[in-house]
Design goal:
Blueprint: E1 2-6, H1 13-22, E2 26-31, H2 34-43, E3 46-49, H3 55-63, E4 67-70, H4 80-100, E5 107-113, H5 135-145, E6 153-159, E7 162-164, H6 170-182, E8 185-187, E9 194-199, H7 200-213, E10 218-221, E11 225-229, H8 230-241, E12 245-247, H9 257-260, H10 269-275, H11 284-287
Helix pairs in contact: 1-7, 3-4, 4-5, 6-8
């Protein structure tokens, strides 16, 4: 199949493109810059210049493809307003891509996040919460999966709080960045709250499996580590950076602070049993050993 991919040069997108190409698919990737264009072409994919907000470009990419993988999201997490704007842009893009596939039964796989359920690990059957700073994303996902009734094979891969590779990425990466800036490997709350995680190379395999075989209107969990205590994550970061490990107010983490403070483990039992997905790459705590010491 020829697959149109948005967000193809990021932590997740780069291995997704490689995974698709390695299994016989061709890839058309949305790129924003000459550097990104060169990167995807070196990988063996075709490039389509445009941004996530260029809806006509998205329509054109989807129209000439046999399927779509939608990964792109704004990189501006600096304020709650910026985060909300990113959700709005993603929602418009996803609606546009879905509409381009109406009645075709072609597959489209979108990225989402695992939900949090009080007192237990969330599962694929749990709904996404519609409150909080990213509640709009849950509403967008509801509409997206609803396209299954309109001749679109829409499916969602829910990613955990940290998608990592070589010690970088996700919430753990944001903790590392904050530690470098502040001189303290900090964690909100008492640090016992748990964050799920997955290696980017394992997540890429699941995106391919969902694209190739998942039923329309379904959601799947790309979770390898059900939940690592945030205090343990901070401890590895502190050791790698030779910094003290301390509790800090959640406000120090900006718009993500309230989410950072939540206990949010997630399970992928159903995904593994149904699609035969099995993570094989290092866990988050193992991968954080790649964090480079301060110079």
């Amino acid at each position: 199949m020829k697959i149109f991919v948005t967000g193809g040069t990021g932590t997740i997108g780069t291995p997704v493109i490689a995974e698709l190409l390695a299994h016989g698919h061709t890839v058309l990737a949305l790129v924003r810059s000459t550097a990104s264009e060169r990167a995807v072409e070196r990988a063996g994919a075709q490039a389509l210049r445009g941004q996530l907000t260029d809806l006509d470009v998205l329509r054109a990419g989807a129209a000439q493809s046999d399927g779509v993988v939608s990964l792109a999201f704004s990189r501006d997490y600096s304020t709650a307003e910026a985060l909300t704007r990113g959700v709005t842009e993603e929602s418009a893009a996803l609606a546009t891509l879905g509409e381009a596939l109406l009645g075709s039964d072609r597959p489209i796989v979108a990225v989402s996040g695992t939900p949090w359920i009080s007192g237990r690990a969330s599962t694929e059957a749990d709904p996404l919460p519609i409150g909080g700073p990213v509640g709009g994303r849950a509403l967008s996902q509801q509409a997206f999966l609803g396209l299954a009734s309109r001749g679109v094979c829409s499916a969602s891969v829910r990613l955990p709080r940290t998608v990592h590779n070589e010690g970088k990425g996700g919430f753990a990466g944001l903790l590392t960045d904050a530690a470098r800036r502040s001189g303290v490997a900090g964690y909100p709350g008492d640090g016992s709250q748990r964050w799920p995680a997955v290696h980017a190379l394992d997540a890429a395999v699941l995106f391919r499996l969902v694209l190739e075989s998942a039923a329309a209107g379904t959601a799947w969990h790309a979770v390898a580590d059900e939940g690592d205590a945030v205090r343990d994550i901070a401890a590895v970061i502190g050791r790698r950076l030779s910094l003290p490990v301390e509790q800090v107010p959640h406000e120090a983490f900006g718009p993500f602070g309230p989410i950072f403070a939540m206990d949010q483990p997630a399970s992928s039992t159903y995904t593994r049993e149904t699609l035969g997905w099995e993570p094989t790459h290092p866990s988050l705590l193992e991968d954080l050993e790649h964090v480079q010491p301060l110079e």
